[in-house]
């Protein structure tokens, strides 16, 4: 197993000490709630072949569940029984794939002896992960010396598996991959695009991180209007010829809105019909995410194959809804679909928009969120003057009024999506304010 990659990051730290010391391993978290918070940051795995040889039926079931994870959608994964000996026999007459996972329930000496035999049939360049049941530093070091990429100790969760694979194929020296945040509305007209654009602006201007807005509402997209941009080219051109899209062409197609914010604007015309294929959308997203840390995808209120795949494959999802019955039903359907398609990810974040509209009957916030069985949510109150003025001026609400409550919500959401703690503003007491004014007068200022 020569020239195999090796990454110690999943073990949290390089182990120290003599043989017999336990390897630091993440605690097993079998519950669904734990799976939501463990490994959800794992990045997509490239188009590779993965083959696993297990000895325990429970491990085989675990790896089969991991194979269904969205981040392995491009990889071809095969799980079979037999352990290291079966893998050795199988590859005597076949080339080894990109990655092999080998489980061993043997003692240390037997495991190492079987791995030595397997190394004779393993091709150079193949990465190997060993899954064992012996937690010992000496064994770990001997495996590393033999070129094993990673050693994982059972029991494990799907999240821990995904995290290890992600670290293996997204090392510190590898090409960076940004995170995709999909914004989708529970119903047409609920303001998902407005929430999307204002949050992206906060990521750029408040969090100070590079972000690109991709407007997939090709005929009716409003990103260009909201940012007072009228680009000649945009995402429509990229989707027509996705194979031609590279960093140079991407830079020409993007509209620069600020130092940290760029816009991949929609055509916004009805001169032709638009039906981009899932592969084209995936290619565009992949190209963009290689160039910026955050890609904000504004998904229209449709449920085509490409739209569904964009939402399911996103790293994080924000659902915008208005507190009425139709939005409740649609939001429930979306969340249930995401639970089924993304069992190892965090649940979507819910944004209740236009709350408190005068004379409009509404479902209470507590009833709405309890029906959805969702905890993470934000409330944006109805403010026709603020949002109407911003939309007509081609500005974000924070550019109109920095003291508006909605600005606090967008900032809070931006920090949450970026997994960063929002800096707490120091509150100045009335006495401190008066003393400060008094001191300024004494100084003649």
CATH class of the largest domain equals Alpha Beta
Helical content (DSSP H or I, runs of 4+): 25-40%
Strand content: 15-25%
Residue runs with pLDDT of under 50 for 5 or more positions: 1-20, 23-37, 438-445
What does this 3D model show about the protein?
The structure is a single chain. With 445 residues, this protein is α/β, with parallel strands linked by helices. The longest helix has 17 residues. Helix 2 crosses helix 6, helix 3 packs parallel to helix 4 and helix 11 packs parallel to helix 12. The N terminus and C terminus are likely disordered. It folds into two domains: 144 residues, Response regulator (Rossmann fold), CATH 3.40.50.2300; 239 residues, P-loop containing nucleotide triphosphate hydrolases (Rossmann fold, 3-Layer(aba) Sandwich), CATH 3.40.50. The strands form two sheets. An eight-stranded mixed beta sheet has the order 8-9-7-10-6-11-12-13, with helices on both faces. Strands 2-1-3-4-5 form a five-stranded parallel beta sheet, sandwiched between helices.
Write a brief structural summary.
The N terminus and C terminus are likely disordered.
Which descriptors apply to this entry?
5-stranded parallel beta sheet, 445 residues, Rossmann fold, 13 strands, elongated, disordered C terminus, single chain, alpha/beta, 8-stranded mixed beta sheet
């Amino acid at each position: 197993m020569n020239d195999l990659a090796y990454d110690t990051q999943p073990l949290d730290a390089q182990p120290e000490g003599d043989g017999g010391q336990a390897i630091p391993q993440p605690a097993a978290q079998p519950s669904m709630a734990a799976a939501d918070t463990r490994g959800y940051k794992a990045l997509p795995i490239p188009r590779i072949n993965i083959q696993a040889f297990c000895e325990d039926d429970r491990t085989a079931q675990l790896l089969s569940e991991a194979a269904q994870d969205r981040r392995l959608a491009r990889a071809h994964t095969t799980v079979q029984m037999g352990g290291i000996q079966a893998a050795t026999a199988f590859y005597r007459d076949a080339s080894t794939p990109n990655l092999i996972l080998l489980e061993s329930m043997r003692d240390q000496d037997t495991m190492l002896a079987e791995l030595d035999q397997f190394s004779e049939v393993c091709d150079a360049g193949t990465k190997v992960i060993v899954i064992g049941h012996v937690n010992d530093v000496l064994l770990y070091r001997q495996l590393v010396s033999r070129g094993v990429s990673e050693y994982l100790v059972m029991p494990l969760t799907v999240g821990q598996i995904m995290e290890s694979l992600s670290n293996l194929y997204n090392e510190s020296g590898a090409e960076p991959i940004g995170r995709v945040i999909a914004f989708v509305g529970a119903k047409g007209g609920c303001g998902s695009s407005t929430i999307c654009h204002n949050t992206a602006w906060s990521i750029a201007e408040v969090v100070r991180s590079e972000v690109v807005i991709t407007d997939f509402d090709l005929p009716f997209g409003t990103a260009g209007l909201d940012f007072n941009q009228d680009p000649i080219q945009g995402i429509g051109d990229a989707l027509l010829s996705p194979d031609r899209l590279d960093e140079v062409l991407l830079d020409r197609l993007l509209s620069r809105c600020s130092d940290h914010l760029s816009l991949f604007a929609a055509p916004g015309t009805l001169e032709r019909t638009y039906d981009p294929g899932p592969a084209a959308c995936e290619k565009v997203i992949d190209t963009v995410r290689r160039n910026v840390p955050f890609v904000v995808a504004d998904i229209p209120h449709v449920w085509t194959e490409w739209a569904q795949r964009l939402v399911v494959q996103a790293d994080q999802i924000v659902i915008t809804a208005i507190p009425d019955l139709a939005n409740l039903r649609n939001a429930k359907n979306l969340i249930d679909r995401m639970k089924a398609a993304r069992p190892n990810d965090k649940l979507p974040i819910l944004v209740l928009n236009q709350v408190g509209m005068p004379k409009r009957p509404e479902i209470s916030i507590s009833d709405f969120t309890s029906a959805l069985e969702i905890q993470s949510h934000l409330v944006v109150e109805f403010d026709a003057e603020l949002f109407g003025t911003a939309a007509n001026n081609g500005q974000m609400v924070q550019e109109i009024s920095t003291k508006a409550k909605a600005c606090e919500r967008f900032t809070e959401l931006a920090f949450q999506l970026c997994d960063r703690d929002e800096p707490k503003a120091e509150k100045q007491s009335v006495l401190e304010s008066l003393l400060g004014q008094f001191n300024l007068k004494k100084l003649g200022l």
